[in-house]
Amino acid sequence: MSNYHIKHLEEYYQVYRKSIREPENFWEEVAEEHFMWRKKWDNVLSWDFSKPEIKWFEGAQLNITENCIDRHLSTRGEKTAILFEPNNPDEPAEHISYNQLYTRVNKFANVLKSKGIKKGDRVCIYLPMIPELAISVLACARIGAIHSVVFAGFSSTALSTRINDSDCKMVITSDGSYRGAKTIDLKGIVDDALEDCLGVNSVLVAKRIQSEIPMKEGRDEWLKPLLDDASEDCPAEIMNSEDPLFILYTSGSTGKPKGMVHTTGGYMVYTAYTFKNVFQYRENDIYWCTADIGWITGHSYIVYGPLANGATTVMFEGVPSYPDFGRFWQIVEKHQVTQFYTAPTAIRALAKEGVDLVEKYNLSSLKVLGSVGEPINEEAWHWYNDNVGKKHSPIVDTWWQTETGGIMISPIPFVTPTKPTYATLPFIGIQPALMDESGKELKGNQVEGRLCVKFPWPSIARTIWNNHERYKDTYFSAYENKYFTGDGALRDEVGYYRITGRVDDVIIVSGHNLGTAPIEDAINEHPAVSESAVVGFPHDIKGNALYGYIILKDTGESRDQNNVRNEINQMITEHIGPIAKLDKIQFTVGLPKTRSGKIMRRILRKIACKDISNLGDTSTLLNPEVVQEIIDNAL
Ligand code: WT7
């Protein structure tokens, strides 16, 4: 078991150095020892960031579901693979063993085949956090279909954009979903979306809320009877290492969402290896990541990484506040959770409710706590460490992105000494670089700059679906021969990294990545709006919230501004989803612009953050007078 499980700091440095000096030998050893390949690779790595082109384990053949399921059957067939905890605490949890997972994935895969889905076809999955979500993901992978999971909180417009961008042939959904005390009509959202999606000819519907819903003749079918009739045997499609495994959309600072393409072999190796080390996973642990499988965190660290290690992974359908704010801790106690991985926004929301609800439950099973999605502030870090971890469960603050596929900077628990608000050290094989504005790399410690990565790692996204140029522009053109992350970071005196936040027009709200451009597009659809600009400002619980500056058209009619505010948020909900609603809306007569017509967001951001002491030189603006007007009316 060389290199697979790191146990102390010296070993980390030793393995890290090897992974940098001889990356190909290092990853080859990991890949060889811990996975099931149908055919070994001809070449470990070939890469060229200027094209960009990156290939890992070229020539190798495999199926990721054989690694996540089949190979565990002889040793762990009866072990729980997926532990499903329903929204309603009175509904029993479901323990799906590796044997049962095998049967359910195979049956589902045969249903997909019977509907004409083949290797390379795109299948959109729009499901709540119920077992069918993980199973349909794996069923696609079993037959080589490319899954595109869309988070079930997105609106019908957001869904149809994503379906059309990658030409999905099929949508898998449910009659509805439970979220706390609410039920949501998911199928209705799919029906609306599909009015604009001519390429979809099949919709498979899981039953979750037992509702009566319209089913479109010839297009929609209930899943259950199809699964009941399907064979339990579906041989895994043999995939090449670089065949696409999935597409997952993420927001950019401009334009439509980017369909990040992840491929098979490298993604499997990296997510499995990081899972094992970052969570120090041991055979009988019960691991729980509270993310939704609609995000990359769920893909890599609910489904693929844990299952590739034969782990038990908890899937929670509900929300942290239902039936009360003690739900997370109740689940930890009930299932004896050993690793708990969540987002700072959830920690802040729970901290606000006080410690009584934490202390009510026995959390002594916990060994490792994780944080992901946005910088964790010092206060939240201490609350988590003191009250949940009782000061003996290390917090792994894991920095990574949809594009990176797996965790990039993180402590290794019991190995790396932690430091509040620091993601600490690069993971094995990761070569970060901090760059200054002029494009020079900042060497040494105690420096701050833009975070890049100098060398490929196995799970880097290979392209943007149908738009390789945009992939190159976004990630590989800011700095020569480097992957640019879009984040700023500093390196302290011992080489620990602290992520300081986005340096582009992406805003992280409650851990969700939102681009300003699509939100502004949605606002501008309102008939009374002539122009808008959206920026972020700090928020106690969400990390950032959205502030919109909006110019209304002069129609001569008088309008109730509160109505317009509500309608604008309604518009955003319809186009993107409720997560992108504006917290503050300021109507204004103008927006500060440069002489070339570009909105000066820097100024708007400062005003939204109530930081107007240093707005910089505004005299060169096209319309410097609007700045004072905006300050005077700021919310
Ligand atoms: C952006 C990526 C990776 C899974 C969830 C988000 C921010 C993520 C951290 C962290 C500080 C973080 C970055 C990054 N981010 N984790 N531990 N500390 N910032 O994936 O939606 O692709 O967002 O989230 O700004 O660029 P994503």
TrEMBL record:
Its EC number is 6.2.1.1. Residues 71-461 form the AMP-dependent synthetase/ligase domain. One of its GO terms (biological process) is acetyl-CoA biosynthetic process from acetate. It comes from Pseudotamlana carrageenivorans. It holds the Pfam family ACAS_N. It is an enzyme of class 6 (ligase). SUPFAM superfamilies: Acetyl-CoA synthetase-like. This is Acetate--CoA ligase. Residues 519-598 form the AMP-binding enzyme C-terminal domain. The gene is acs.
